[in-house]
């Protein structure tokens, strides 16, 4: 019975996506007419939820067809599961650390005020800003940021899995315009509705947005103080403990198993878990949970309460750990005592960019020269490795760069 139900569900999903595909390829008249009908019908829903007709009409002015790139991103499920070292290498870079430190100086007066009002570490906020939008650089990229009304309407109209989410987020976004925080033509987001410097979805924006600069608008698109204060407010309201860390790198004694769940730092120390820098735990009564994202061969961490508060921003251990580690780097602390279990010697930022440039010059790579190894860079490396008779692992290694330099 289960197999039959699953097969029926698959058939239905396949037929739905086939219908959407036909609608988008049979000609613009068919696709546009259905989408425009959906926009017209949803207008009544918006009005019933407190959005004025004028606001709705401004938001959808010029929107006549779904965004095919949104549907492509919604359908795409990457097969590659990044290793721990790759996830962190792409987020903890020399450039992001330097930029964070420079911005800490540039925005110091505002960071002083935000930290005083919300009690959240400025370095945590800078790390979130970096990971969410590359310190706002993503907002300038038209390939990433697009019309929020069009994007969410596209999902509500043509993606059955995300339709309910998209409808609720679209109503919340229109209320942002109705309130006057942002104009309709500035209402941009990622394909799935994440907005501004700190990438809030509209309902989270409604819950936590802050007018920090006092201009009467909660503008996370154009006001860095508003965006950082909004992130700080989310963390504070979810239990951030001021003056406390997110966790500690630790060294595990060999030859034993460790209990799952939370224990006090004092109890962890009692079974032989010590800080990697050799210092005592400053708050031994605090509870912590052991995290080994790269297995026992990689670095280990004891995560305290603030780590789990960061996860309210993005419910991922890797995300929370990347925020914590990048924040520590921006604050000037040294790096990990035990590095990630990387199967090659890591390239510097400049070397990684050189690798991308050389792959591009040979016709293997067409992506940005940003020092980040994503699917495009991996595919290019594999193609070059195949040509050179090397193992096709896609790793940005010293060996690959050496071979590229010899071309």
Write a brief caption for the model.
The chain has 407 residues and is mainly alpha-helical. 52% of the residues lie in helices and 6% in strands.
Which structural category do the helix and sheet elements fall into?
mainly alpha
> From the alpha-carbon coordinates, what is the Rg to the nearest angstrom?
24 Å
**Strand tally:** 7
Based on Cα principal axes, name the global outline.
globular
First CA to last CA: what distance?
59 Å
SS strand fraction: 5-15%
> What do the pLDDT scores average to?
91
Largest sheet: 5 strands, antiparallel
H and E order = HHHHHHHHEHHEHHEEHEEEHHHHH
Describe, in plain words, how this protein is organized in 3D.
It is a single chain. Helix 8 crosses helix 15. The protein is built from 18 helices and seven strands. With 407 residues, the protein is mainly alpha-helical. The strands form two sheets. Strands 4-6-7-3-5 form a five-stranded antiparallel β-sheet. The protein has a two-stranded antiparallel ribbon with strand order 1-2. The N terminus is likely disordered.
């Amino acid at each position: 019975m289960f197999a039959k139900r699953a097969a029926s569900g698959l058939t239905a999903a396949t037929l739905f996506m086939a219908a959407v595909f036909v609608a988008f390829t049979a000609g613009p008249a068919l696709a546009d007419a259905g989408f425009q009908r959906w926009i017209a019908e949803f207008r009544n829903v918006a009005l019933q939820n407190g959005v004025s007709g004028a606001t709705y009409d401004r938001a959808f002015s010029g929107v006549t067809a779904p965004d095919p790139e949104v549907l492509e991103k919604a359908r795409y499920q990457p097969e590659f599961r990044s290793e721990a070292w790759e996830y962190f290498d792409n987020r903890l870079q020399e450039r992001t650390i330097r930029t964070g430190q420079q911005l800490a100086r540039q925005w110091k007066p505002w960071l002083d005020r935000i930290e005083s009002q919300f009690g959240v570490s400025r370095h945590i906020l800078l790390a979130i800003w970096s990971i969410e939008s590359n310190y706002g650089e993503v907002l300038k990229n038209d390939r990433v940021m697009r019309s929020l009304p069009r994007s969410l309407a596209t999902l509500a109209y043509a993606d059955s899995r995300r339709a309910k989410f998209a409808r609720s987020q679209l109503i919340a976004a229109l209320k942002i315009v109705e309130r006057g925080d942002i104009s309709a033509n500035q209402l941009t987001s990622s394909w799935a509705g994440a907005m501004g410097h700190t990438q809030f979805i509209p309902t989270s924006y409604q819950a936590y947005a802050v007018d920090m600069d006092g201009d009467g608008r909660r503008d996370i698109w154009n006001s860095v103080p508003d965006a950082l204060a909004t992130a700080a407010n989310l963390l504070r309201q979810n239990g951030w403990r001021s003056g406390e860390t997110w966790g500690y790198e630790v060294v595990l004694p060999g030859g034993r198993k460790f209990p799952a769940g939370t224990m006090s730092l004092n109890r962890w120390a009692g079974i032989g878990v010590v800080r990697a820098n050799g210092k005592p735990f400053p708050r031994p009564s605090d509870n912590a949970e052991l995290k080994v994202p790269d297995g026992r061969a990689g670095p280990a961490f004891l995560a305290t309460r603030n780590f789990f508060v960061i996860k309210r921003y993005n419910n991922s251990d890797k995300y929370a750990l990347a925020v914590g580690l990048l924040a520590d780097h921006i604050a000037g602390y040294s790096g990990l005592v035990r590095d990630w279990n990387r199967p090659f010697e890591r390239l510097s930022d400049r070397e990684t960019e050189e690798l991308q440039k050389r792959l591009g010059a040979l016709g293997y790579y067409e992506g940005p020269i940003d020092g980040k190894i994503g699917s495009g860079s991996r595919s290019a490396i594999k193609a070059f490795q195949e040509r050179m008779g090397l193992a096709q692992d896609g790793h940005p290694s010293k060996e690959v760069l050496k071979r590229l330099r010899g071309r």
